[in-house]
Amino acid sequence: GRVEQRLGRPTVALDLPGHGEQPALTSPTTLAEMAADVAIRLPAGPVHLVGFSLGALVAQRLTVDQPGRVRSLTCVSSVAERTDEEAAAVQARLDGAARDFAGSMDRALDRWFPAGEAEETAAWREETRAVLLANDPDSYLHAYAVFATGDRDIAARLPEISVPALAITGELDPGSTPEMSRRLARRIPDAEVAIVPGARHMLPVTHPDDLA
Question: Around 131, how many Cα atoms within 13 Å sit in the side-chain half-sphere?
Answer without folding.
Answer: 14
